[in-house]
């Protein structure tokens, strides 16, 4: 990274070539503006963050304790505040990403209004949110750098050489808020060409990692709802190729593809692919098709299909809408085939959508995949669609039952009840929830843990909390006690909301452009001064 002094020297040389016409331009101000805006384009961001992900993946291969995490963010401000908080509490953004959830785009960002997670929202909303997130992260960089420049100016004004050196050191070693985004492209929003075109827009906006699922694009369902329909491998692999070509065309050679399989919960397929030779990929896919064995053509009725499978003929089980049913209890086998096939055809990471957060269930599937692809790694959805409390309490209940422990104080179907919160069983369940990510990284190949839509829920919960008391007896005290007082005491930067929105940056720019004639907003009458 170029140092502050190097940026000034470079700007000074450029200005020297322009003669007196550019005498009103300051080399130091140029250096500051360049350092406040380190990424000129979304492609710069994509290349930078792709390298971060590749390094993190290699670190995980060496040590599974080096797993990564993210939270889903539905607005640029939410992503910005998340990364500011991470830097404040942990002094580093290492291993922390953002997740862009198709569910939250559908629910919160569509011009149609709130929509279910069925790929009905505008596809352009996906790259638009990526661009918005990075716009806010870059603004967080500019704001923090602006404060560092003020510290440098203050140290110079006081003649404090130690403070001046410390300020320069912080400027030269500044860590950006810009981190990788794992971006959900759903099922590609159409055919492989549509997937390619949308991938390009997402990458140009800054995405270094694109997650794509094997559902039917025009029948896509939320991963935790019923009625999911998958496509044959050849269709899905064509879309993986489309994403890779988009990365390569745009020069993001380290771009990461996450191949998601919904086969564990999907009982239907869109079509029966054509097999060329026995045992090929389409033949393996067709082996999972449910059907009735046919020994005579007289058993067929008008409109029936006939599928030759090995030495037998079957009539596939079809619904009234033409979709074809898979054999029951084949989900795990289909997941394993999906995962192995995706890795062998260009995917970098896997996503197995499960119906519950069960460590052994995930590990059993990953172990089978790793028997063929030893470096297989997962992105895992720590979904709010799971009832984590009930699930883990029931897991502990079942484990203790096998151990022969006395469970008469507990009712398995009622374990969500608050009366159990202080019980030994509940404490053990909470301990397992707390260690779930660490344990899954170690034994189940999970490289990246994410929560898809946490900030959807936190926004609803905090708003309910404030509304209940503000519109009740507490009135303004509710806001002061629950929000502002907490912001001040916990050191939240956005308590000075004018500064967070860029007011001080704008003042500095006015001074750069207009000198002493600048009309600045940060004078003594600015009420933000009340916060010190």
**CATH fold name of the largest domain:** TIM Barrel
What is the topology, as strand order, of the major beta sheet?
A: 12-6-4-3-2-1-14-13
| Uncertain runs | 222-226
DSSP strand count: 14
User: How large is the count of helical segments?
Assistant: 18
Strand content: 5-15%
Bulk shape: globular
**Oligomeric state:** single chain
Short characterization:
With 532 residues, this protein is α/β, with parallel strands linked by helices. Helices cover 48% and strands 11% of the residues.
Written account of the structure:
By secondary structure, this protein is α/β, with parallel strands linked by helices. The protein has 3 domains: 1-37; 38-289 and 326-452, Phosphoenolpyruvate-binding domains (TIM Barrel); 468-530, no CATH class. The protein has 18 helices and 14 strands. It has helices at residues 4-16, 27-36, 42-62, 76-90, 102-108, 125-158, 161-172, 192-205, 233-249, 281-286, 331-343, 359-370, 388-402, 424-443, 454-470, 476-490, 497-500, 503-514; strands spanning 68-72, 96-100, 181-184, 209-213, 229-230, 256-261, 268-269, 291-293, 307-309, 312-316, 324-325, 349-352, 378-381, 446-451. It has an 8-stranded parallel sheet. Helix 4 (76-90) links the parallel strand 1 (68-72) and strand 2. The longest helix has 34 residues, at 125-158. The radius of gyration is 28 Å and the shape is globular. The two termini are 33 Å apart. Mean pLDDT is 92; it is low at 222-226.
């Amino acid at each position: 990274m170029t140092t502050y002094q190097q940026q000034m020297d470079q700007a000074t040389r450029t200005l020297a070539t322009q003669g007196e016409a550019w005498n009103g331009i300051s080399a130091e101000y140029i250096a500051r503006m360049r350092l406040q805006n380190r990424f000129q384009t979304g492609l710069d961001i994509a290349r930078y963050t792709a390298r971060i992900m590749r390094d993190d993946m290699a670190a995980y291969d060496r040590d599974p304790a080096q797993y990564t995490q993210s939270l889903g963010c539905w607005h640029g401000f939410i992503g910005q505040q998340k990364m500011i908080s991470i830097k404040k509490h942990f002094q580093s953004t290492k291993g922390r990403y953002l997740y862009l959830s198709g569910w939250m785009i559908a629910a919160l960002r569509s011009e149609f209004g709130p929509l279910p997670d069925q790929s009905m929202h505008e596809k352009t909303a996906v790259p638009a949110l990526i661009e918005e997130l990075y716009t806010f992260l870059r603004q967080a960089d500019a704001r923090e750098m602006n404060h560092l420049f003020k510290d440098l100016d203050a140290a110079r004004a006081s003649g404090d050489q130690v403070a001046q050196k410390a300020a320069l050191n912080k400027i030269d070693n500044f860590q950006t808020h810009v981190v990788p985004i794992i971006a959900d492209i759903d099922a590609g929003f159409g055919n492989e060409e549509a997937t390619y075109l949308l991938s390009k827009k997402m990458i140009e906006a800054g995405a270094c990692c694109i997650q794509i699922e094997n559902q039917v694009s025009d029948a896509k369902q939320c991963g935790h709802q019923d009625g999911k329909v998958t496509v044959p491998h050849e269709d899905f692999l064509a879309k993986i190729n489309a994403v890779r070509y988009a990365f390569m065309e745009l020069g993001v050679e380290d771009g990461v593809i996450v191949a998601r399989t919904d086969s564990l919960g999907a009982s239907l397929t869109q079509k029966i692919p054509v097999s060329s030779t026995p045992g090929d990929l389409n033949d393996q896919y067709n082996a999972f098709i449910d059907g009735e064995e046919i020994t005579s053509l007289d058993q067929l009725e008008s409109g029936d299909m006939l599928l030759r499978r090995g030495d037998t003929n079957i009539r596939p089980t079809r619904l009234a809408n033409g979709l074809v049913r898979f054999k029951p209890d084949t989900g795990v086998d289909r997941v394993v085939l999906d995962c192995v096939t995706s890795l062998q055809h260009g995917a970098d990471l896997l996503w197995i959508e499960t119906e519950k957060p069960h460590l052994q269930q995930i590990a059993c599937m990953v172990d089978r995949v790793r028997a063929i692809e030893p470096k297989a790694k997962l992105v895992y959805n720590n979904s709010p669609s799971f009832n984590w409390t009930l699930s883990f309490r029931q897991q502990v209940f079942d484990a203790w039952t096998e151990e022969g422990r006395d469970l008469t104080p507990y009712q398995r179907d009622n374990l969500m009840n608050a009366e159990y919160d202080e019980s030994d069983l509940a404490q053990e369940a909470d301990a397992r929830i707390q260690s779930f990510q660490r344990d899954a990284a170690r034994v189940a190949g999970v490289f990246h843990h994410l929560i898809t839509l946490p900030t959807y829920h936190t926004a609803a919960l905090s708003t309910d909390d404030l509304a209940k008391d503000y519109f009740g007896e507490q009135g303004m005290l509710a806001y002061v006690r629950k929000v502002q007082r907490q912001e001040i005491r916990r050191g939240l930067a956005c308590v000075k909301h004018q500064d967070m929105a860029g007011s001080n940056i704008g003042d500095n720019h006015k001074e750069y452009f207009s000198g002493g004639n600048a009309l600045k907003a940060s004078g003594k009458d600015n009420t933000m001064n009340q916060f010190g």
